Amino acid sequence: MDFSAIQFDDILGYNESSAIIEDSSAYAEMYGGDGGEAFSTTGDFSHNASDGDYMTGGEFRESHSVLVDGGDRFGVSAVTVDPKEELVWMGNSGGHVTSYLSTDFMKYTSFQVHATEEIRDLCAVDSGILALTPTSLNLRTRQGIHNFTYQSEELENMQCMLQMGGRFSHCLLMGGHQNTLVEYDLTRGEMTNSHQVGENGCVILRYHPRFVCHGDRTGKIVLHDPRTMRSEHSFQAHTGSLSDFDVLGNYIATCGFSNRMGQLLSDQFVMVFDLRMMKLSLPLRALVPPLLLRFVPGLSSCLAVVSLMGQWQLMDAGQPDNAIMSMSYQVSCVPESVITTFDVASSSQAVVFGDSLGSLHLFTSGNKPTFNNFSQETVMIDLQDHTQTLPLTDETTSLASVPLYYPTSSLISDWPEQYMKVRYRPTPPFDPAIIQSMKIVGSIGYAPNVHNKKRNQVPYKFSRTKGQKSNSTDNASGKNEEGYTVHVPWRYRKIEIKYGKHGMDDFDYDQYNRTSFSGLDMSLPNSYCNPMLQMFYYIEPLRALMMSHLCEKEFCLVCELGFLFHMLDISMGQGVPCHASNFLRAFRTIPEASAMSLTLSDQDNRAKINFASKIQSWNRFVLQQLHSETLEDKIEHSMTENYDDRMIHLSKQNTSDVSPDIDQPKNKEGSTVQSQDKIENSPLASIFGAHVVSINKCTKCSFEIHKNTTSLLVNLNFPEVTEGSCPFSSVVERSMSLEQTRQAWCDSCTRYQPIEQSRRYKTLPNILAMNCGLDSAQDFKFWKHQFVVLLTDIRDKKKEDEKKSDDNNKSSPSTPSKRYPDSSTPQPSPARPCRYGQACTRHDCRFWHAGRDSSEESQPVHVLNLLDQTMEHSWVPLGMKATLNQDGTVSIVDLTKTQLEECYSDGKDVVYELVGAVSHIADPRFPDKNNLVTCFKVGPSYHVRAKVSSVSHWYLFDDISIQPIPAEEAVWFPCGWKVPCVLYWKQRHQAKPVCPIEPINPITVDVFGEDKSLAQRGKKRITFTPLTADEMPGEGDLVAMDAEFVNLHQEEAEIRSDGTRTTIKPSHKSVARITCIRGQGPLEGTPFLDDYISTQEQVVDYLTQFSGIKPGDLDANFSQKHLTTLKSTYVKLRYLVDKGVKFVGHGLKNDFRVINMAVPAAQLIDTVHLFHMSHNRMVSLKFLAWHFLKLKIQSVTHDSIEDARTALALYQKYCDLKASDELVMALQGLYQAGKKAQWKVPGEEEEDQ
Q: Where do the annotations place a divalent metal cation binding (predicted)?
């Protein structure tokens, strides 16, 4: 009987994401008793057979752990318990064998078997101990005397050996990584026979009264007749390889690895085969990932199962429903070591383990444990004392090994008695704060352990020489270059998530985002621009403009932004972030972006990238790019025209009092004035643009050139003088009306002359975009100085107010403010302990720390560190008032929060309120985790779309994390770690009812009109029939859809020592083929869309087996398919989505995610979920087609047309079953048939062969 075709993973519903959770609550949930009681983590368990101790002697405990001979260099490779005497034998990878006497682990014998080869296996026989190396067999007496060494050409790479029982006890079988099994006669001392076992060899041998069992490298176990060594039965225990197996009575138990997705992963289950019926019994799920196992002698079905990291437990192979006999024990090995071998004593009272770092661990049970119930007496040898001699040339032997003379009388060198008293280290005194906070229960006091130390341990403080700290120490303590303490809140830190086996599907995003808005995924290259994309989306006029645009250009940023904004609209309330993959793909194709180093790769070191400067360059470049693209292709929709006119008209109203002197300037000296108009009116300019006149005047001849231009943003220019206070509005005013002198060409003088350059405004923008700069040390010094001046003034004013209050009340002298303490005054240490204990890295922490010097806690607090304690005050205001003067200059003043609520823009003044800020987050402790975040004030219209109250509120956007914040936090800039990069200000008008600016959908039925192929060579194969005008799908119509993909970047994952697999970075896929099929009508089942998507990026894996895509299919020079651009097919799908079409398919959620399109859940009909029962596995389309439709699909490769038709037929079958009330029975029959067939279509293996 051959069981090689059995696939146990599918029987069990096991998947690669299964993991063992090692805490008591998980155990109670998985293996609770009848009453729901939880098991004890100490291992106490009452076996249900007798409700008492399952073994005489009670629980196991680790009684000894010794470092074996040579353990400092070699690990333990083999261990066995002697069945004749009270001995444990150990062999290591250095060829050395050592024995230990009784459970007291006294060393008995120690000898070297081989100089270079490791000990592969040990076997205790009557005449001594057999040691097997890769090329030899050695026999020594138990006292270490050499008996014989056998070597032969047949012994190539031996792995295991077995002494047969009964009348064949003189026979020894040896196997290894070779195709023969060597039979050796211990009586005659020679090889008597060799047996063929196949090319997979023999790695494990076990004896049974009826069989000789051997396991090979492929996970197969073969049962041989002990008389003829003929193969009788075989079991395919594991699909990958075999780790260990054992046989006792009627059971064979195995553990090993399975081959999943081309990788060997550890099986969580112990496979148990019944030798009476020669078939698999119910597998046993272990609490620990099994690596080694042994049956416990004396108990017919008790198993000891051991994991790689040293956890082990006892299981009952005869009772699969209640197999756990004890919770897991832990071998006390160091974390760097792993368990390599173990054995169980015949008395069942001792278990011995060997690890990779040369240690031997003994677990015993009972008061007086023994290895055997009836042991022979061990011969003890009387050792003669040998005088140790050392040659004079010996430089390696330790002098400590030379025995010393122990005199019985006093020596001259003895110290006097008064200097020889025993002194114990005094116990350090308890801190009074601990005594005060201690709770007394009876005669015992309890206090919180704030030391972060183990129980019953008090650290002693040693005085050390204080020297200069290194930079690494400063970074580890969270200090910047100036020595200020830096503590970055969690909500601002860079998020790094590890996906499971199913990628995004099994990740809980709610822990980062509990709002109705959607975040942006950060796993894609160039996702550093996510904060700016979020800011663009929440600017309502810009959102409407982008979503109303559509052009024929393949890579258009305006179109891609419109598509992305549509995804963010649809994804509201779904709790899943969106991908900006299509936008970033178009962005990478722009040559200017690469020339400006705005595109990054995965290999770039984040610690060396200046994200603050890069995001400002990105903002400047993208605004200009959007301006150019909307200028080239103006939108023809009436709403957009009216919107643009309304915005321009509003800008003119705000500047109606501008003097006409700017349009026609007059020079008092009568010099020539030349005007050059370069105004470019675009829809984007009506939002961000300001009409600016640039004036260049020659200082020699007074020749002037006036250029009318459109300015889209303002770059802040900070003064060079850092002394004194300077309002933020003065810096903005100086930057907008910048005047400077430079060397330039003068057309009048026909030479280079000093030219005075200035700017004058005719209109002010509706949205003022501002790059903060701060890319030089001088600018940053000015920035910090303004915060220092501001906080110092506030602290001094607070102290004066408190002093006046104290004088009026005639009270005691004033104390410094708690919120704004004097930086020169040491701060007292409060009695309340810090929650972080000694792990706290803030030197200015206000709480008490055990063991910290009072001088350390009394350091002066720098005034900038006060920013970490309050958000009430900031140098950057929440609002500004701008006035456009007659001469074209701009006057700006700061507005407080209260003033801002009462001011609105009118015909003379323009009131700007801050609506967005992009900041750079730099934690000196983690320089490679620099981050960019956005604080934005989301308007009422977005809250209305999210079906919440119509209010405006500030939010913090950190990729997938979205959290509400107060308005003060938007202008909260602690100089140590948060620096502003981009600020957006919006004109504040009189409050009106919420009336969202809705875009006009530019995607019409015309997108199906032109259908051109990019393929240039060969005859094109048309596999679809285009839609006619009367066939256009409408709301509720069915369309079957399927897509195929290729890999642009492979998945990055790690496999831990316990076999669990964690995805660090998901694979980056690109859509390669999209197929849509009619779901009704006379041409039902006929494709109307079957496009191959051209890609200009490098494909690392075409996934031909799963996609059917071959190299050349996506290349316009070689393809014979109907090849189109992604945008051409994307707009067709968008038209169907906008029309309310219902898509039918298998795994549609993943398909649309890679296509980068959001579809409402009501428009998706996924056969994965239609034919699924809760708490069961998902069923493949291939198996569903075979079971319900009697079709065999995907036999060689995948075809999207075939898959889409099959999904449509399955949906029709689902509707029929549901109408006849047979759906539940059909699903039950589906899972029964799947388990019976191992979820494989019968006959497919024969077809593959």
A: 1042, 1044, 1151, 1203
The DSSP 8-state label assigned to residue 308 in this structure reads T
Tens digits of residue pLDDT in 568-581: 999 888 878 898 98
Written as one string, the DSSP assignment of 1019-1046 is -------PPPGGG---TT-EEEEEEEEE
| Contacts of residue 717, Cβ cutoff 8 Å, sequence gap at least 6 | 731, 734, 735, 738, 773
Nearest to 201 by CA among 134, 267, 268: 134
In terms of Cα–Cα distance, which of 298, 249, 230 is closest to 57?
298
CB of 734 within 8 A of CB of 719? yes
Q: How far apart are the first and last CA of the chain?
A: 21
Distance CA 841, CA 849 (A): 11
Q: What is the pLDDT of residues 438-451, one digit of tens each?
A: 788 877 887 776 55
Cβ neighbours of residue 32 closer than 8 Å, sequence gap 6 or more = 38, 39
* 215, 755, 929, 957 from 532: Cα distances, Å: 60, 36, 19, 10
Q: What is the DSSP string of 120-160?
A: -EEEEETTEEEEEETTEEEEE-TT--EEEEEE-TT-SSEEE
Rounded (10°) CA dihedral 601, 603, 608, 613:
10
274 is known to lie in a ligand binding site: no
- Summarised one tens digit per residue, pLDDT across range 905-949 is 777 789 999 999 999 998 888 888 888 999 999 998 888 888 877
Cβ(1167)–Cβ(1148) under 8 Å? no
Show the CA angle centred on residue 252, arms to residues 249 and 256, nearest 5°.
155
| pLDDT value of position 531 | 93
**Token pair 């039902």: residue:** 1084
Tokens of 546: 């982008």
State yes or no: 1042 annotated in a binding site. Answer: yes
Q: What is the rounded distance in angstroms from the CA atom of residue 773 to the CA atom of residue 980?
A: 9
Q: What residues contact 180, with CB distance under 8 A and at least 6 apart?
A: 154, 194, 195, 196, 197
CB-CB contact of 98 with 377 (8 Å): no
Confidence of residue 703 (pLDDT cuts 50, 70, 90): confident
Place of tokens 């032969």: 152
Q: Tell me how far apart the alpha carbons of residues 95 and 89 are, in angstroms, rounded to a whole number.
A: 13
The residue-averaged pLDDT of 314-340 equals 84
Position with higher pLDDT, 1160 vs 866: 1160
Residue 819: per-residue pLDDT: 46
Rounded to the nearest 10 degrees, what angle do helices 1223-1236 and 1181-1188 cross at?
A: 110
Across all residues in the chain, what is the average pLDDT? 80
CA–CA separation, 522 vs 535, rounded Å?
A: 16
Mode of pairing for the β-strands spanning 953-958 and 961-964: antiparallel
Give the CA distances from residue 559 to residues 583, 593, 1056, in Å, rounded to whole numbers and listed in that order: 9, 17, 43
Helix, strand counts (H, E) of the chain: 26, 54
pLDDT digits (tens, 9 = 90+) for 406-417: 778 888 888 887
221: nearest Cα among 208, 164, 209: 208
Distance CA 532, CA 959 (A): 11
Q: What pLDDT shows up at residue 989?
A: 78
> One-letter amino acid identity for 883?
T
From the list 985, 765, 782, 979, the residue with the least C-alpha distance to 880 is 985
Contact 1194, 1200 (CB under 8 A): no
> What's the pLDDT band for 51 if we cut at 50, 70, 90?
very low
In contact, 859 and 843? CB cutoff 8 Å:
yes
Tell me the backbone φ, ψ of residue 269, rounded to 5 degrees: -110, 145
How far lies 863's CA from each of 599, 798, 920, 976, 1205, in Å?
A: 39, 14, 22, 12, 70
Give the residue among 91, 600, 574 at the shortest CA–CA distance from 358: 91
Rg of the chain on CA atoms, in Å: 40
